Each structure stands twice: as C-alpha cells, then as structure tokens.
Amino acid sequence: MSIHSTRPRRGMVIAALALSAVVVLSACTATATPTPTTSPRSLGIDFETATIAQLQAGLTAGDYSAVELSDAYVARIESVNTTGPSLRAVQSIVSTWREQAQAADARRKEGTTRGPLDGVPVIVKDNIDIEGQVTSAGSLALADNVAVSNSAVADRLKAAGAVIIAKSTLVEFAFWNGADSWGYSSLGGQPLNPYDASYSTSGSSAGSAIAAAAGLAAITVGSDTGGSVITPAAHLSVVGYRPSTGLISRTGIVPITDFADTAGVLGRTVTDAALGATALLGADEKDPATDLAARHPGLDLSSGLDTAALKGARIGIPAGLSLDDEESTLWAKSIETLQKAGATVVSVPWQATTHPFATVMYQFRTSLDRYLTERTASDFPIKDVSELADFYREHPQETQKYGADNLFTAEKVDVATGAAGADAVLEQARTAMTANVDGLVTQYDLDAFVFPESFAIVLEAPILGMPEISVPSGYQAKDRHPYGVTFLGERGDDARLFGYAYAYEQAGEPRKTPSEINPTMWRCLERPSTAEEQASEHCLP
After folding, report:
1. Catalytic residue among 228, 334, 470, 473
2. Does some domain include residue 499?
C-alpha cells in the first residue's frame, strides 16, 4: 500500500486493522501528497552515508535542486518503507514537502540561504505537531488529530530552511501507553531494524532511528523522556542526542512529563547531529524550561567538534559491570578508544536510584489532558485521558495488542489531590540523584561519564535534565548487531559533550551501513530495468 494513498477515516482504519492489515497513513490535507518523480538512483547519492555537508555541496554546485533532492528522498521512502525491506519507519509523508523545497530553491537563487539545513530533507517523530498534518503519537485514537498549529520544533526547522518530508513511527504515546513491544504502535504497526529484522529497534523514537540509519532523511528528530532517543540510536548504529532539558522547546509535542520531556536529534554522524540540534535550540515563552536556552543565546553545538577534545578529559565509567562475553569485548574496545583519543578513564561506583514513577504517571495524565484540550481541533472528539481510555476499551482488539496499562492507570490519577505527592516523589529522586552525580564528579574530578549499551537508560539524564549522546561503537561478532556507548554530561554543557563524542567517533571504527551488515535485506531494493543490470545486482528477472 502506498503511503501517498488517500488517508482513510478512523472507522475504515479500525476495520482494516481488525483484518490485521497494518495501515501506513498519508498526511491529512485537502489535496493529494505530491508523488515523487526522481529515482533515488539518479542523483548519485549514497543515502546510507550522505552527510549534511555533502548534500549542501551538491545543492551549492547545482548538481541537484532542493526539489530534486527531496523528491529523491521521498522516492527512497517509497522504496523501503512499505515495499522492499518494508521498514515501516515512516508514518506519513508531509503534504507540503514540495512547496518547502521550492522555497529553499528560491532562497538559494537569491543568495539568501539560511544555513546548513537549508533545502535538506528532515523527518520528525509523529508526536510533533506540524500544522495541517496528522499528529498521531502512534495511536489509532489520534488517527484524525490534525494539528492546528506548528510545534516549536517545526517552526525552528522552518526557520533553518529544512524540508520536513515525513513523520516517523513511534512506540505508542512514546512508551507511556502500556508495555508495548519495542517500536510497535496500534497505528503504525511493527517497524523493523534494517540491520536485522529480528533484532529490537528499541524505542520510543524507533522510526526516527530507523529512518536515520536507512538514509530516509539527512537527520531525524525524535523525543526523549527516559532513553527514547538514546536506546534506539544504539540499536540502529546512529548518533542520538538528548539535550539538556530546556535547550529545545517542548511546545507542540504530545507530552509525558513537564520535567523530563525533550526533543532530540538522530543522525549518522556526530557532526550532523550537532548541526541539526543547533537549529532547534532557543527560548520559548510557552515553555518555562527554556530559560536554559535563554541563558545560552547563539549556542552552536558544532563549535567544539575537535579530534583533540578528549585529551586530558577525565571520563567516569561504571565499576562492577556484569556483562556477557560479547558486550565485554565491545566495552573493552570502547574504553581503548577513549584512551586512544586522549581521555583518562576512571572506574567509579555508580549508584542505582529509584525512578519517580508516580510523578511520571501524574504528569502523563495532566499534561496529556492539557495537550488534548488546548492543541487539538475544536471538533476533535477526544479531549482528555478518560475519553482516550474509553476509545481503547471500545476497540481492544485493535488497540491493546500489548495492553494499555499505563493509560488506564493514568486515568485513575486523582488530579485534584495528586500534585503535592507527585512533587514530593520527584524532589526525593532529584535529591538522591544529585548527591550521587555531584559526589562522583567531585571525588574523582570527572568531566563526563560514559556508559555501555546495557546501561543506556541513565535515569539521571531525564530527572536532572542532563545531556546524553549515544555514539556507534561496533558490532557484535556473533550476529553483527549494532552496539553503542552513551556520553553523559552536566546540564548546559552540551557543546563540550559533543566535542567528546566527536573525538571518540573519529578515534573509533567507522560506522557500517545496514546494507553492509545485512545485505540480503537490501538486495533488489530498486529493481534494475535491464537484464544486464539485474544480473549484476543478483536480482531475479
């Protein structure tokens, strides 16, 4: 099924899902989404490795226009999303992509380009509002939720000249609906890992990570409340950046919490992640947390990208890890890479701390109520969590493959009396975590921390608002599954952390693409037109 087909109404979607047909929606607009005409082959771009700088060089040289470039990326999505490898990383195509690209071409012709993202195709997670497009958060219940205004993220991307071509799939409500399978949602179905279709994509920004890994856009935007960018990045061999909470506005993102939510960026290189994230930074009067961004005007996350950035840095790693043989080998190589880049590695007794689950559940209820009330169209029928839960009860077969425990628990939250208790639980967690982190930094004179993939969900990052960057760090020997490590830094110290991540990336082994690791999944992606081409590419006639 083409993702450009007319979007079905909710009743039709329910009927289709009841017949076990996974539907990929197109954007909700009055006009049809433009069909791509440029073959992904024709521009000579290696989509799995192309960097922002390389794409910009082609645009500047006139090798292709922004329209042709976006056209090729949309065609690439058509080739791999529901056909070819059938990755199901993309939920919808943004109907205005051609107009956006035409505007970029007009600016370039006038000599007024807006920076490194101008004319470059980008994909955003489908819990981020784009005016006139569906924001589903992966839920069948929100299949008709057409955004009435842009999110701050969409506005920032527009200001940077980026071409938002599509919205990516995600774990339903960013993993706060229930105990979902990694990547799965009632609307988008089950996405696949292009490195191994049987291997977890992790989540909740699974679609964004898959899209970055498979070259469906130059960079992608996800969201992170507790590992939702970092863990998929590690599983998909891409760079994932969770910023210090408050550097990027959350306005217009389907929420989970006021204290931990943030947008994040995924790319194939540290440089691309830094360039993409820099475009998103900025204060927003609608989001009080962005007072942090206000204190760092003009911050450029790519300014400290230096192969010598780790020289003399003291990096803490957790002591006493229990790892299997595969991860032990990869983790040992990661430590060697840190040392090769000039870091002093210090083993520290990292303390596990308690997750403030009660606070998250309370804020999931109150913040989602607020989103449904304030940011949906006046005629949208679901205006609070109770009405959302009713939809799930009315359609259990279509919506509860993995349950909806969190949603039903959130429905029972006592909003009137729960605030004080939620605040107390959060403050208790913050106090314990601050003592743990500050104590280690002081005692061991640390500049940052690095954790192995199995330690990817570091609760201190969302609770204390600290930045994280996941960097590809090799592949397991037995099955070639991707492996990554995570850098954790002090809140507001994002630019320096990017420097560390870049130095590590440059000192380590080069990232490998999905088609290198898993060539059988990518064979005959685009059927050659002649028998000679078919033979050369091992395709069946």
Report:
1. 228
2. yes
Q: Is the pTM of this model over 0.85?
A: yes
Q: Is pLDDT at 312 greater than 80 in this prediction?
A: yes
CB atoms within 10 A of CB 434: 14
Tell me which of 79, 92, 95, 125 is the catalytic residue. Answer: 125
- Least Cα distance to 125 among 225, 55, 39, 197 occurs for 225
Conformation bin of residue 256: beta by default, left when phi > 0, alpha when psi is -120 to 50: alpha
Distance (Å, rounded) from C-alpha 534 to C-alpha 541?
7
Catalytic annotation, pick one of 204, 208, 244, 470? 204
CA 334 to CA 339: how far, in whole Å?
9
For residue 189, is pLDDT > 70? yes
What's the angle, vertex CA 122, arms to CA 51 and CA 37, rounded to 5?
95
114-134 pLDDT, tens digit each: 999 999 999 999 999 999 999
CATH code for position 268:
3.90.1300.10
Let me know if residue 353 belongs to a domain. Answer: no
Domain count of the fold of the chain:
1
The yes-or-no answer on residue 204 being catalytic is: yes
- Rounded to the nearest integer, the mean pLDDT of the chain is 90
Q: Which domain holds residue 137?
A: 10-312+450-522
**Is 529 known to be catalytic?**
no
User: Is residue 387 included in any domain, yes or no?
Assistant: no
User: What does the pLDDT average to over 184-198?
Assistant: 96
**What pLDDT does residue 20 have?**
30
User: Is residue 414 situated within a structural domain?
Assistant: no
Peptide bond into 536 cis (omega under 30): no
Residues forming a β-bridge with 449 = 316, 488
